[in-house]
Amino acid sequence: MTTAERVPELDWTDPHCPVARALDLVGDRWSLLVIRDAMDGARSFTEFQRRTGIARNILTDRLRRLTAHGLLARRAAPSGRRQEYVLTDAGRDLFPVIVTLRQWGERHAFEPGEPHSILVDKDGVPVPEVTPVGADGGVLDSGTTRVRKVE
Questions:
Q1: pLDDT tens figures, 93-143
Q2: How many domains does the chain have?
Q3: Looking at residue 85, which CATH number applies to its domain?
Q4: How far apart are CA 143 and CA 147, in angstroms?
Q5: pLDDT 10s digits, 20-42
Q6: Distant-in-sequence, close-in-space partners of 80: CB < 8 Å, separation ≥ 6
Q7: Is the confidence at residue 7, as pLDDT, over 80?
Q8: Which domain holds residue 76?
Q9: What is the band of 151 on the pLDDT scale with cuts at 50, 70, 90?
Q10: What is the C-alpha end-to-end distance of the chain, expressed in Å?
Q11: How far, in Å, CA of 102 to CA of 120, rounded?
């Protein structure tokens, strides 16, 4: 493994909290936007830069980190002349996170009537609200759940 490919050292914000660890990996603005665009079909450095407007040095860093931590993988593009970035299983597993964040943004980041994009399924139907449910089918929220520490 070359120096450029080495996994960046992580100083976990809270080593026992899954939320903190996830944010240490993807919690900055640009990482989630790169993941979002990869889910929407972006593959090349140029595509990611065009879609996000991110500076080249920051994009280079985020792609390196996301690849090193197993959220993206690099492979030869079909032309064979370049590398492209594709989501790994871990990256694809962020889909519900992106959907939930998008839906929160639709509810809270726009003024009433302000235009914004919406996520639709393959038939053009808006994706239903993502709502966590318990084993009994009841809706879960912060008032009906708690964190249990595992020793």
A1: 999 999 999 999 999 999 999 999 999 999 999 999 999 999 999 999 999
A2: 1
A3: 1.10.10.10
A4: 11
A5: 999 999 999 899 999 999 999 99
A6: none
A7: no
A8: 3-92
A9: confident
A10: 34
A11: 12
